[in-house]
Amino acid sequence: MITRMSSLFLRTLREDPADAEVPSHKLLVRAGYVRRVAPGGYSWLPLGLRVLRNIERVVREEMEAIGAQEIQFPALLPREPYEATGRWTEYGDSLFRLKDRKGGDYLLGPTHEEMFALTVKGEYSSYKDFPVVLYQVQTKYRDEARPRAGILRGREFLMKDSYSFDLTDEGLAESYQRHREAYIRIFDRLGLSYVIVSAMSGAMGGSASEEFLATTPTGEDTFVRSTESDYAANVEAVTTPAPPALPVEGRPEAQVHHTPDTPTIESLVAFLNGAGLGREFTAADTLKNVLVKVRAPGATEGELVAVAVPGDREVDAKRLEAAFYPSEVALLDDADFTANPFLVKGYIGPKALQDNGVRYLVDPRVVPGTAWVTGADKVDHHVLDLVCGRDFTPDGTIDVADVREGDPSPDGKGTLVAARGIEIGHIFQLGRKFADAFGLDALGADGKPIRITMGSYGIGVSRLVAVVAEQSHDEHGLVWPRSIAPADVHVVIAGKDDTVREGGARLAEQLDGAGLSVLLDDRTATPGVKFADAELIGVPTIVVVGRGLAKGVVEVKDRATGERVEVPVDEVVAHLVDLVA
Amino acid sequence: MITRMSSLFLRTLREDPADAEVPSHKLLVRAGYVRRVAPGGYSWLPLGLRVLRNIERVVREEMEAIGAQEIQFPALLPREPYEATGRWTEYGDSLFRLKDRKGGDYLLGPTHEEMFALTVKGEYSSYKDFPVVLYQVQTKYRDEARPRAGILRGREFLMKDSYSFDLTDEGLAESYQRHREAYIRIFDRLGLSYVIVSAMSGAMGGSASEEFLATTPTGEDTFVRSTESDYAANVEAVTTPAPPALPVEGRPEAQVHHTPDTPTIESLVAFLNGAGLGREFTAADTLKNVLVKVRAPGATEGELVAVAVPGDREVDAKRLEAAFYPSEVALLDDADFTANPFLVKGYIGPKALQDNGVRYLVDPRVVPGTAWVTGADKVDHHVLDLVCGRDFTPDGTIDVADVREGDPSPDGKGTLVAARGIEIGHIFQLGRKFADAFGLDALGADGKPIRITMGSYGIGVSRLVAVVAEQSHDEHGLVWPRSIAPADVHVVIAGKDDTVREGGARLAEQLDGAGLSVLLDDRTATPGVKFADAELIGVPTIVVVGRGLAKGVVEVKDRATGERVEVPVDEVVAHLVDLVA
């Protein structure tokens, strides 16, 4: 295929768009790949659409390779199935809701677990039908609070979502693993740098959910990685290793001290170190008791829960939320303190909490035998040498303290450093939540129903165009990997005389004949303009047909490395065919 | 590619779905191509999605062949551009409207003229940039009052919409013609029977808009065609040939007669024929004056207009609406008659109308010299021999009388007969309406702006799946044309023994190796079930691998004709490759 720039619907821009901050947004607009038509809504111009379709092709090939079957749902969906799973309300403001002419409630699908579960229930009924993996490449809608960065976070976007249906947990684990491998192949073929991070710990089990994050300094998501191993995780998923328990014997008695005006950790540590106690205290020696209200889904009343973390750490809001999910969690307000007079603000300790039936959950570092300074449930008083397992017994552990660079890596190798990334894929062992909502069963060999277990797997297809651009560009423009470039070769006719023009056109036809796709710059613009546009557009190989033609050579330039070689014109087709293959 | 039915996500149904009336709907559901998920909302299962993609491919190839460039817009669009052209309100209840989390107004695009016009305005500015043709294959939304017939009339559907942008009317006419030819090639490749009908007459000019209607008795659209020529038109677009004018001289004087109790044409004709006037009257001799209110877009007040049609015809509501478009037109109610006492109901004549400044438009058959019986503006009185051009002069003609089978064809060849069809394509010379709304100009060679003129062209891509099914099926199931079939060959393994099973699998692999796509029925079902499913699914060629294999032959069956031939197993690959090519 030859695409002639003289008639291509493309106007490149010399200036960055005013609303663009990240490189991919600037360059995709400047190079004429996308245009903004609404907040979080973009049109795809011809070159952009080609890259998008190329990415779709890679995704489809790898999905087919693991036996996934493509189907397609509408984007406009009825309320009822989403009501049945609670997601009609759970999605909050992120869901686009609308009414039809008869007043019926509809939504624009943000993801399709409900529809796939119902469809499998409609078609399949026997254990012999399973497992099955279905997928679609389909337009999704989310009413983002802050659509940003062009197509990186839009409100309408293209997604590949797939769903696995298995009879057993082991089957689900296999389907999950196959998706994981397919995703690795997809992102490798796109030439991306990425990490696979544990996305959630706790309730869902360690490996039940992983995210693929493309590493880039402009990423919205923070994660941590080890300095010395492959370990990487979302901050929510980092598990703190528990230190070994210590012997209780021989530890000093717990003692209540008068610690006037010490409602904060800082004031407490300063007071203790000035109190002539004969030892040094740090914030890490204190135990901070934070009170939260936890409300289970559907419940009207919340439960009071105490979370204890070492005084040198804060409770991380996202980790707190993840730890209690799907319950909602909130800090206490003044009214709550008034209603619970045993809570002495600034001086809360485990005794009053446990005496009053408040669940007491502690950081994993609080193991038996560790001694703490903490509140004595009385204004201006703290207790020292309160030993876990002797003076108090926690109701459980909770891993919600903030994670810091320098913390030991959970796999025991190296320490953690923070990094930023963009979510490009998410794989998730859903389990039986959706099957339960719709009664999705298979009839077993023994005539008894088997509840199906599901996995859900997503790739942000349109986002990937921006992610690749974000990782692969330089100061001159985009640098597409060959697998998804809008053309194989960009032929620049650099000269106005007929020999050069005809030579360029003939070369384009020969390349087309050899099965390559060619972007041919046959415009009347100056060579300077054409070179700048070629760099901006980012086709991996640029061929300049110009003055050299008189000597029988053309210049072949590698967009990524900038390397140029002169190639005899009668060898250039074979040379380029080799290069592309 | 080999698709194995043992694992294909497909369950065929023996019974027609309860809500299906037309054959395509019944068969596409029974054969497992689509499933209903909401009113007017369908999911595409694997085989259906393949046919849809094949149709998309044909459409894209022919669009690219006329130089159209593919881009893609969001479906979720902001209100403002549609407000600027008046379509935000004009679409009425057919438009899905919604609000985002900030209360901003959005719509789900029913068609994208506004967005394409704005995009061209954003990119192009010089006369050298034009003409340009852009298109997309994109999901559209219309909140149909009565979604019906499965995917024939859905609320979410896939459409190819293209738009041409030209500097001159001649350029637009050429762009229109190129689309017309591309559409003919597309529908021919799909093997469809269709007619091209004039879609609108009057204001827009005769050939400014044509519809492609697939002819089928289950079609929603009525059209007329000539018994003796290629003439075909929507009822709205039929033009009535005017008879030659007659001489006025020597015609009897107009005379008012007392015609008691004759407010209807029927009662009037009966009275006249019993009045001993010495001649026979028919309804066609009378002139019926129908009063309407016409309200221009944006106007608050309507204008009173009289429409005169021969008494043997009714005013056709759709033709009336088309004749006054974009004004709105309504019949008079009692209050209007009370407010205009010169209107004597049942006895209205041209005199009182024209004396009171009411615009008087007449049927094309009312030419100078024709004499009519009509109202005398007085209860129980009519006037006879009122001669057009002598006793009254119409303010213009209007072609809104009903069209009947047997009417002469407007091209002078044969007479009209009624037929039914389904709209599959629409081509439309829009002119400058949208360019005017957005100030879409090109700077001319002389430095002066040139207002761009647009064409708009649509094909209902998803609907075509149903339309082909509607025209191509028999009592056993679907019969796909080769160009869009879900597979090239359906290989049925008819037997349980290993030789047959292995023979079928080997044949499928050989066919795959030869570049054919194969649907392989490797299920454990009985041959009877497999044969029935093969007929239902409708792949054009069915190969039965069964008992004959022992003699070295397989059976090749043509789905459309039912013809069967035995082919030696070592020749069958070559035979099928020939057949498919």
UniProtKB/TrEMBL annotation, chains A, B:
It is found in: Cytoplasm. One of its GO terms (molecular function) is ATP binding. GO terms for biological process: prolyl-tRNA aminoacylation. Its main location: cytoplasm. Its EC number is 6.1.1.15. Residues 35-481 form the Aminoacyl-transfer RNA synthetases class-II family profile domain. It is an enzyme of class 6 (ligase). It catalyses: tRNA(Pro) + L-proline + ATP = L-prolyl-tRNA(Pro) + AMP + diphosphate. Pfam families: HGTP_anticodon, tRNA-synt_2b, tRNA_edit. The keyword Aminoacyl-tRNA synthetase applies. PROSITE patterns: AA_TRNA_LIGASE_II. Transmembrane segments: none annotated. Keywords: Aminoacyl-tRNA synthetase, ATP-binding, Cytoplasm, Ligase, Nucleotide-binding, Protein biosynthesis. The keyword Amino-acid biosynthesis does not apply. It comes from the Bacteria. Coiled coil: none annotated. GO terms for cellular component: cytosol. HAMAP family: Pro_tRNA_synth_type1. Consists of three domains: the N-terminal catalytic domain, the editing domain and the C-terminal anticodon-binding domain. Belongs to the class-II aminoacyl-tRNA synthetase family. ProS type 1 subfamily. Catalyzes the attachment of proline to tRNA(Pro) in a two-step reaction: proline is first activated by ATP to form Pro-AMP and then transferred to the acceptor end of tRNA(Pro). As ProRS can inadvertently accommodate and process non-cognate amino acids such as alanine and cysteine, to avoid such errors it has two additional distinct editing activities against alanine. One activity is designated as 'pretransfer' editing and involves the tRNA(Pro)-independent hydrolysis of activated Ala-AMP. Homodimer. This is Proline--tRNA ligase. The gene is proS.
